[in-house]
Amino acid sequence: MGSAAAAAIERHPHLATPCRDGYVRVDMHSHTMFSGDSTTTLDEIIESVVEAGIDVLCVTDHNAIEGAVRLQRELEGDGICRVIVGEEVRTHTGEIIGLFLTERISFGDNAVDTATQIRKQGGVMYVPHPFDPMRRNLTEASLIELTDLGLVDAIEAHNSKTSLQSLNKRAREFGESHGLALGAGSDAHVPHALGSAFVEMPDFDGPTDFLAKLGEGVLVGHHWDMHRPWSARIVPSVTEEY
Question: According to the model, what pLDDT value does residue 240 have?
């Protein structure tokens, strides 16, 4: 084991347990410098994915998919990790995530219209960090409305940046009581957060199979929200081609 992988296990001890045969580790929520609130470069993402042994990374930048598209090309091209193109979209009543996107979703609409846009692309509608008042979480009334309309596919039952585990527990209970698939993600805004949470689930092929297999998954993770250690660095322009 290399020193980088050992350091990842020290940060996130559950990484020491091997993934079961036929299963993959899927981080359903992560961010790059294209988010605007993160300075994590694509090279840093690639390095941290290797260290943490993530098999599938959902890149869900705020109101952007360019970083996800570029990482999909680089990580899959090198056979390092599969990438699901996603987007964390701001709506009038809070944020929702679209996964398996082919086009950027417009932001600032109401939640029903946004969820409908995701579904029209054949995407998966995922609700991040519900019930967490410290985030731009979807309001409970909006979450119930979307669920009643059948527009929610999965809910984030473990978010590593959510400090109160009672909020993650509440999300899990809501998902279970409404028959929703349960997801987990690091919500990484710094490279070392990758590996802090993921779903260990049977391998899948495409969004429909992903949702079917997600129900067989196990949520793995812990609370981890440490800041990036300071160092002098230059962050590339988000308009720059890699």
Answer: 45
233 falls within a domain: no
User: Hey, what amino acid is at 143?
Assistant: L
Angle at 181 between CA 49 and CA 123, to 5 degrees: 70
DSSP line for 144-170: HHHHHTT---EEEEEETT---HHHHHH
CA distance 240 to 221: 34
The pairing of strands 23-30 and 56-59 is parallel
pLDDT in tens, 111-154: 999 999 999 999 999 999 999 988 889 999 999 999 999 999 99
Name the band, by pLDDT with cuts 50, 70 and 90, for residue 238. confident
102 contacts 118 by C-beta, under 8 angstroms: no
Rounded to the nearest integer, the mean pLDDT of the chain is 94
Task: Say if residues 210 and 122 touch (Cβ distance below 8 Å).
Answer: no
- CA gap 199, 215 in Å, rounded: 10
Domain with residue 154: its CATH number is 3.20.20.140
Q: Does the residue 2 lie in any domain?
A: no
The count of domains in the chain is: 1
Range of the domain at 172: 7-16+23-221
